[in-house]
Structure formats: C-alpha cells, structure tokens
Amino acid sequence: MSASDVSTTLPLELGDTTGPDSTRTWPPTMSEPSLKAPPPPPFFGPYQTTGTTLGKGGMGVVYEAAHVHTGELVAIKTLHGQAASSQDLDAIRHEIRALRRLRHPGIVPVVDHGDQDGVPWMAMQRLRGRTLHDHLHALWTTTGVSPALVHLLTLVRRLCAPLAYLHGEGLVHRDLKPGNVFLQDDDRPVLVDLGIATRFGGAAGREELDIGTWAGTFAYMAPEQLRGELVDARADLYALGCILHECVTGKPPFVGPTSVVCAQHLYLPPSPPSHQNSDLPQELDTLILRLLAKAPEDRLGYAVDVGAALVALGAKAEPEPPSQPYLYRPPFEGHKEAKAALEKAVYGVAHERRGGFWLVRGESGMGKTRLVMELGPMVNRLRNDPALTMNVLTATCPSPGADAAPLSPLRPWLRAAADLVRHSREGADHVFGPRGRILARYEPALLDMPGQDEQPEPPALAPKEARARVVHSMLEVLRALAAQGPVLFVLDDLQWADDLTLDVLKAFANADLGQHGILLVATYRSEEESPAIRALANLTHVSTLALERLDTGSVVQIVAGMLAQREPPRAVLDALVHQANGNPFFVSQYLHAALERGILRRDLDGRFCFDAHRAGAAIASLPLPETVEELITARLDRLNAEGQALAQWAAVLGEDLDEALLLDGAKDKAAATAAFDMLLARRILEVTETSRLRFSHDKLREIAYARIDLQARAAWHLRAGEALAARFGRAKEKAATLGHHFDRAGMYEKATKYFARAAVCAPDVNSALPLYEAALATLRETASTEARRAEMARLHERRGDALTLLGEYEDARAAYTAALEANQEARPVDRTRRLRKRGTAWQRSNAFAKALVQYDEAEAALGEGPRSKAWWNEWLRIRLEQISTHYRLANVQETARLLAEIEPVMEVWETAKVRVHYFAALTQHNLRLERYACSAETSHYARKCVAVARRAGNANELLDARFNLALIHWMGGRHAKAERELIDTLSEAKNNYVRDLLTRCSIYLATVTRAQGRVEQTEKRAQESLLLSQEESAQTYVGFAQGNLAWVALQRDNGAEAERLAQEALARWGSPSAFPFQWVARMPLCAVLFERGDLVGAIEQVNAVLAPNTQQRLPQRLALALAQAVDSFATGQTAQARRELRKALRLAMQRGYV
After folding, report:
1. Which of 912, 884, 911 has the alpha carbon at shortest distance from 899?
2. Protein kinase domain spans which residues (predicted)?
C-alpha cells in the first residue's frame, strides 16, 4: 500500500491483500504472517467462533463465526479488547449504528450486534469475491493492456447506486476508496467499513453535534475533508472521482508522500485522465475533472447524476431502486463575530489551558448548533498537532417528557470519560475512583470500569449533601480529565436541562474550572430562557453570545448552498427572504415543503429548479407561510392516512423512538412499513446517532401531538402503556414513562402504581418528590375504597419523608397531616409513626415544645398493645426523639430519665440502627453532663457506638460514630489517637463527599495539632477548614477556624492579626452564644489584651471561657489558675491578678490554648 493510501483511522482498517486474480471471502482472510490477532473468544452472543481470523489491522479484528442454531457463517468485527482506545470504541459503535438501519444490496448488512466485556461487536454477512483494490491491481498489473473501458465504467456506475442510497439516508461515507468496495462474484459492488460515516442531512431538520471527528484516507480525501470542515455527500463524490480516475488510469489522481498528496488535493488542479490514457474520451475527462473540483459547489452534487453520466459514456444501464432526494446542508452564514469569539476561546484552551464558560442563545432554528459545529475544523487542526491532546465531548439535553431523568444530558460526557480510561486501572482510579459509584446511579455503565467493584458504596446523606456530593463528583471528574489535557465540552439545548444538570453547570462556573483547562459551550433557545438559565448567564465567569436573525445576503447564500447551485431563481429568493424572516430553519422548511409539493424538482442535468412561470408565486403561496408551525402542519397534512396515524403514534411515544415499538401491533404490517418509510423519506423522522429514531425537529413532534383529539390521544397513550409494560415489565427505568402514558390514558390506578414505583427507584429525593406528587394526583382520580385510602396515606407519608429530608418542614408536616386524615382507620402503629414523624418535622424547625406535644400524642395513639416488634420499634423511636429534643433544650434531668427508661429494652433490642442512636444519645448526654471533659464511661459509650455502627453496616452512621470517638480522644488529651481517627474519617468523608463531616474533621484536626504546638500544620489545616466552612456557610465553624488561625498568628508574634481573627470569630458566634469551645479564640485574644496592658479586657475573656453552664471544662490545673486571677481581680488585687494571669497564660501556652 502506498503512503498516500494510509488511513488516518487505522484502528478499523483491515488492509488490502493484493495479488493477481485473488478471490476470497469478505472480510479477507489474514494472509500476512506479520499480522497477529489475539485468539478469539469462544462466543459472541449466539455465534461460536470457528478459530479462523479473517482480518486484522490496527485495533480492529474480524473473526469467522457460526450461529449456534442455524450454522450460518458470519464475520464478527470487533476490537482488540483491552488495547482499544476511546476513539476505536467510538468508531466501531458508530459503524454499527450506521449499518443497522441501512437496507441496500450494495451495503454490507449487519445481522446482529452486541457487547463482549464492554467491547462492541457486529456480525456481518459473509461475502465472496474481492475488493475493488485487488481487482484493479490485477487488471492493471497482470495483463499489460488497458482494461475494457465499458467494464470499468459499469463497475463505478453500479457503485453509484449504494452511494446514492447512503446519501439519501443522510449519511456520507467519508472513507470511500477501492479497499472499502467489495466486488462479489457477479461484480456487484458492496460498500464496507462505515466506521467514520457521518450525517450531513442537517437541512432536513436540526443539526446534530459532530465536532472533532476528522478522518479518512489521504489519497481519496476531498479538500474540505482535509481541512477538517463539515462535509456532505459531495466529499464522497470527490472520492468517487478519485476511484474513477484510478479505474481508467491505474492510479488515483495524486500519488506520492502523504504531505505532497494532501497539498495536491488542496491546491493543484488535476490533469485530465486522458493525459495518462489517451484512449479516454474527452467527455470522461470532463466528468472526472468536475468530480475533482476543489469547491464542493462546483462538483456534480448527486451520485445518481454520476451514474447517468457514466451510462451516457457507455456504462451498462441497469435498473436500480430510486434513492431519496435530499437538500444539502447550507453553508455557514452570519454570526461571524460569535464564531470568532468561540474560535478564540478554543485556541485559548488548547494552547494556554485558558478555558471558560460560554452560552449561545438564540431563537429556535437560528443556527446555534451549527455555530458550535463550525468549531470542528479548528478542533481538527488542533488535534492534528502532536503537541496538543484535547478531548472533545458533546451532549444534547433531551426535550421534556416522561423519559427525562436527572443528569441525563451529562451521561454522554460520563460515558466518554469512562471510555478514555476504561483500559487503565490507574487512569480509572484517578478520574473516577470512589466518585464512580456516586455517579453510577445516573450512568450505570461506570460500574464496568476497572476497580469499581472494589469501591465501597457511598454512605447515605441528607438530600442537600447528597446533591452537593454528586455535583462535586462531576466537577472532580472534569478536573481529572483536564489534568490529562485540555477539554472542550459542548452541550446543546440547555433550555431542557434538568435542575441537577444546571446545578453542575452553576458549580462549574462558580469554581471557575476554566482555569483548569476546560472550555464549556452550551446553547439554548432564547424564547425558553428559564430563571435558572438567566441566573447562570449572570454569573461572573459566564460569557453569553446572542444570535440575531440573518440578513438578506446570508439567506441568499443558504438557499444557494442547499440547492447546490450558485444562483437560484430571483423570484424564489425574493419570496424566501420575505417569508423566512432571517431564520435559517424557516428557510429549510420552506424548501422541503416545496420539494414535497413538486414545486422544487431536479431537472435532466441534475440541478434543482423551479417552474419558471410560477416559482416565486408558488413559494410565496405555500400554505400559511407566516409561521413555521403552520407550515409544518401543512407538511403533516400531505401525509396519507397511514402516515398521519404513524406520526401521531410516534409523537405519543416521545422523543427517543424504537423502530420495533413504532411498528409493534400494527394490523397491516405492510401498510405500517410503507408509512414508516414515508416518514423517513419526507424527513418527518430521522435516524439518530444511536440508531434510534426521532422527529427531525422537535417542532414536528409538538405539532403532531397537538393535532390529536383528546379521545384519540387517550387511546394512543393506553396502547403505548400496554406495549411498554409488555416489553419492559418491571424495569424501574421505565416506571415513570409507564405512569405518564397510563395517566394520559385515564388509567389512574395503573398510573399511580408506576409513579409510586418510579419514586421509590428515583436516584435522589429531589427526583422522587414530583413522582410522589404525580402518584397522588392520579390516585385522587380513582374511586374511594379502603385500599385507596390506605395507599393515599402511604403516598402522603412518603412525600412527607421526602420533604423532611429536603428540609421543607412545614410542607412535610402538612403531608403527614394529610396522611393521618386520608386513613383515619389506620392501624395504631401506622398512625403513631405518622404522628411521630410530624413531631420530628416540628423538632427540626426548632419548635421543641410543639415537637414534645406531638410525641406525647404519638405515644397515646400507640396504646398498650399488643406489644409486637413494630410496637416496640415505635415506642423506642418516640423515646429517642424525646431524648434528642430534651438534649437540645438542655433538659439534663429529663434526658437522663428517658435514657434510664429505655436502657433495659436496649440491652435486648436487636435492631442495630436503633442501638446506634441509643449509644450516640448516651455519649452526647454524658458530654454535656461532664462539660466536654470526658470520663471513662463516656469513652466506653463512644467505642460501643462505633462497634454497633460497624455491625449495622451503615457507612454514614459509622463515620459519625468514629468522628465522635475522635473528639472524645481529643477532649481526653489523647491527641495521637484523635489525630489518627480524624485522618481516617476525613479520608472516608473526602472520598464520599460527606461535606459536613469533612468540614468538622478539618476543624478538629487543626485543633489537635494546635494542642501539640505544631504551628505550620495547624495553619495549613486551619486554612483548609476555613475554606470548607465558608463554602458551607457554617458560621460556627468559620469562627472555629479563625480562632485557630488567631493562635497561629500569636505564635508568630503578630498580635494585631491574632486580635483581628479572634474578634471576627466571636462575631461569628454571636452574643450570647452556647458554642462550648470559645476558648479557641478567647484565649489568644486574652493573651493579646494582657500583653497590651488591658487587664480588664483580658479578665473579661477569662470569665467568658470559665462560664459554667455553656463552656467546656478546662483542665483542672489551668482552670484553677485562671479562676485565681479572676478572684484576685474581683477583690481589687490588680497586681496579684496580673501575676496570676501571667502564670495561667504560661500554663495555657504549654497546652496549646495560647
């Protein structure tokens, strides 16, 4: 193979086996001894490998296999497992998606596909014959004479048919060359290797993100493809011109070293082929040179036209199935300043790791996605620089609907990040680590990464902290990715983003991740700008680009580009400029409407034309052209009855469609299939990058759905619900969708069941709450029965639980009240539980008196029996809540009484969770009794709490118990033990992003090192804890950190700074304050005031530290020394007080207090 025939996407290249008259099966049997493939696994799905490796190249390998039941031989194409890169995975997945839906005898069919240990594979039909590369090699090197021209022209003419079909389906091959054309035994060509095929049919609907995917084979690559620009079918036709040139001359138009070939494609006009083969007619020269035109608009635009030209030149004419007519993607027009701004941002992140956050806003159809796609050429050039390694990740927010899920827009980012590190345990641990399990609730594929099976389950957190943990984990993944090289993230249709996704983006902006080499670009519709997006746009580190309507000149260029002709009729242009009002989507809709109505057609020369006598009037008279909505309605009206019915069914099913489901249950399969083909042909539906279906623009779906009358709509939704239920059964990810369909169908009992199931399975409480509300709404529509009343009470209670977790205590109390009222005949234990929970909602609102009243009411409802396990569980829960409330009220005696009351029960109680709460309550009670100077008994309770929590298996409770034990070590002066326990707990808290515990551990670690006199370590830890406390807006801990930093300043003889920090800490705590560790700031402040000579101020600080009811009991010797100074000052013995305070401060310095 020559240097010019080297593919830029080697991972899936199989190579060409040359040799005279070589005949073989496709994919080719591996003949070169240097190509060694790994041994095949025994099975790929239902196919058993035969042990024969058919081909290999780069990262791709093809095995022979046989179906275990039918014996049918197939070729299994896959990757080299652990050696595959993320680009290789993308390529083969892309090829599978492209081939699955294509049905043409000239395109190799995929008969099955799947995943083997996370690596995709596809089973393809075995073909007998040879590649066109082999065939031409044999023709030109073995006979010594020029092959018959008719034979060569007929080969290329036959190739035009599958190429026309491919283009009609909106795909461009991008790697068309003799090695990717397989000739069967009857010389019928079959296109193979669509690993880098891409869509170009953006004009039919909306654009699809495709950035940074530059690929192809240099000898056959069009100039625009070499430049990394967006390509369409005309890039394939350029390659077809290269193939035709090679057929009639024996070599492609440009040969030589790769760099020379590329330059010739870009700049050198090709010589007429007849200069190399004088037997060629001038008309063939003209055809080939036109196909090889440097500018796409100067080439023939359609493969069928090339076929017709070849027939005119003598190729054998044969009947071919008609291909779909299509319009080209228009050139990028307008928005030049916006494009320049984004290109500058891409350059900055690539070369200087200076990223940022850009929002692109504009009306629907204004070209937002296309603007972002225009970054492709620049990204491709940057990626071609070996000194740069930039990752590009793209995603689209799904439109609102039953399948919308939290964080779903960012799932493609997570999958792409996983692909980048899936073959490296070290890389997977660095990028994901414990964050993998946190994020796997939103993208389960993360669990397949190496090492994830060894990661512990993250501990349960309150909803606010859990949400913050998810957001933090996303940011950490982005940071870890950026550490490997600059990252460009593109997110389309931000107006449909869920709240959690918006929280991630807000955190991205606030964290200024642009400084880490990350550039994020998001687009959204200006007419659907939500308050949340408006707030995002107003953040400091976010820049916004607003796209305006296009001017007349830009509209003219768009029309010319879509029609692939330089000067469309003036009457048509005038009408479109007036009617489209500067919106490029409107332009495309008008032209497609004209194409469907026959006003726009292709003439005998293959150019689009309008009726010369009525073109302008016809375009202007398209039905109700003032709004695109009415124009779309007219397009839908032109469908036949079966087509309209299928469009309605698709609109009911939603955005992401499955072909099998779409055609499922059709009474007339043939009619349904014909209607389906019509929707594809009319560009009502299109195939997505994942080989599923969607409306070519969301406006089509919205309008198709709105046209269904209510009765028919209910029937459609019932059919959808039943079909999905039959297919997916109890799959939790479909529960909300099923609830949605049965709700719209008026099947409220079924809807309630599925909404309730979806709420229980929701990944977080924020997502569960609206599902509980949906379940309640549908349940209210059903008849009142005892079962309904019980279910109503259960749903209200669960909604109350969710609201309590979210801190919405007033609404939670209302929900528990509704539960009590919904089923007044509930069992005593159920009624008790709801009353207790209502009391808890009062307690967490700091309404302690009301909480105690509620607990008394709950105990009365519980009654005397029968004393089942459920009865005792509720009785214990009530007592523990009462203990907690009295502890908060500092009712020491009542707390002690309640603890004594439940002690006999706790000695035999088997539920570990309740026992954890009991020992935690004992520990806290003793701490308060002992004024945080821990006894051996308190230490025993703390250790017992840790042991019980470990047996219970609740990671969150275990972390809390270990933290409390560390504090008790610190309070008891066991600083080394305290530090070890705090460091271990801090590590776990950091891994699982238990933010509150992370802050507390940092605070007390600084205090422990302070007690040991380690100034540098204390300063570092105090600064870390200050930052964490500020981020959490935890004012008490902010003051704690400032108190530790005041001590650091004092050690460095910076009295002014120590005083400032200490005073700020006291201000954080307020006055009066029950915070028991005020000595942290007051003792350094006392020392500063004393050295200044302010004895009054110093004694004031000592008095506050020694307050008997609120402050920690200091070590006896220090407390006595301070008390003596206070007593002397109180009796007027100023000099004595000064001496005693100096002595006390010296003692305090030895203990880390000053």
Report:
1. 884
2. 48-327
Which range marks the domain in which residue 350 is found?
336-546
Q: What are phi and psi of 29, to 5 degrees?
A: -70, 135
Is the pTM higher than 0.70? The answer reads no
Alpha-carbon span 552 to 560, nearest angstrom? 13
Confidence of residue 535 (pLDDT cuts 50, 70, 90): very high
Average pLDDT over residues 939-950: 93
- Identify the three-state secondary structure at position 302: coil
**23 and 127 part of one domain:** yes
Q: How far apart are CA 714 and CA 755, in angstroms?
A: 18
Cβ contacts of residue 912 below 8 Å, gap of 6+?
Answer: 948, 949, 951, 952, 953
Q: Is the pLDDT of residue 30 over 60?
A: no
- Give the domain-ending residue among 312, 346, 381: 312
534 and 509 in a common domain: yes
Q: Could you tell me what percentage of the chain is helix, strand and coil, using 3-state DSSP and rounding each to the nearest 5? A: 60, 10, 30
- Same domain for 255 and 107, yes or no, is yes
Q: How confident is the model at residue 12 (pLDDT cuts 50, 70, 90)?
A: very low
- Torsion angle in degrees (nearest 10) through CA of 702, 703, 708, 714: 0
- For residues 532 and 660, membership in a common domain is answered with no
Total structural domains in the chain? 5
Report the distance separating Cα 550 and Cα 582, nearest Å: 4
Q: In this structure, how many other beta carbons lie within 10 angstroms of the beta carbon of residue 1051?
A: 18
Count other Cβ atoms within 10 Å, centred on residue 441: 16
Backbone angles phi, psi at 26, to 5 degrees: -115, 140
Angle of helix 499-510 relative to helix 765-779, nearest 10 degrees, comes to 160
| Tens-place pLDDT, residues 607-623 | 777 655 554 555 555 44
In a domain, 822, yes or no: no
Sequence-distant (≥ 6) Cβ neighbours of residue 867 within 8 angstroms:
none
pLDDT digits (tens, 9 = 90+) for 244-255: 999 999 999 999
Do 650 and 614 share a structural domain?
Answer: no
Would the annotation count 506 as a binding residue?
no
Cα–Cα distance, 614 to 1012 (Å, whole number): 94
Q: What is the CA radius of gyration of the chain?
A: 37
Q: What's the CA gap between 442 and 439, in Å, rounded?
A: 6
**Of 683, 708, 733, which marks where a domain is finished?**
708
